């Protein structure tokens, strides 16, 4: 068990920014994202015994992180308006404007589809890893990915 705990410690140190980015994509709040990451780490330490195969540490931890992020959303059912995000952006920066459009489009996706899109393109996970994290089969992950991409094409194309 000590070996698993050391592996978790090293993994968290190396990937804390990725964890924060993912938590922030759910919470839209810097402080809340930090809380979600912290809660996820505490839960992972507490449940390290449930990690059967150390090779699946990434999948196991991301599942905890996503579950904690979703739990935060359920506890704090409030939306952060996109206008708050846009206030920090200058209108003349076209790349940034496109990023805002993409951000908006991704945030408007259904939670299950959004999770697959974020894990695939922002966290650079393989489809098999996403299936493990979301506890769904590979074909479901693929269908959600393709559906999400189609929805994003439509959404971005209309704006």
Task: Write the topology of this structure.
Layout: H1 2-27, H2 30-46, H3 57-75, H4 82-86, H5 94-107, H6 111-122, H7 127-134, H8 138-158
Helix pairs in contact: 1-2, 1-3, 2-3, 3-7, 5-8, 6-8, 7-8
Structure, explained:
With about 160 residues, the protein is mainly α. About 75% of the residues lie in helices and about 0% in strands. The protein has 8 helices and no strands. It has helices at about 1-25, 30-45, 55-75, 80-85, 95-105, 110-120, 125-135, 140-159. α5 packs across α8 and α6 packs across α8. The longest helix has 26 residues, at about 1-25. The protein is globular and about 50 Å long.
Please give the largest β-sheet: none
Q: What are the secondary-structure elements, in order, as H or E?
A: HHHHHHHH
Mean pLDDT, to the nearest integer, reads 84
Number of strands: 0
- pLDDT < 50 stretches: 79-92
Number of helices: 8
3D shape? globular
Which key terms come to mind for this protein?
globular; 159 residues; mainly alpha
In short:
The protein is about 75% helix and about 0% strand. The chain is an all-alpha fold and about 160 residues long.
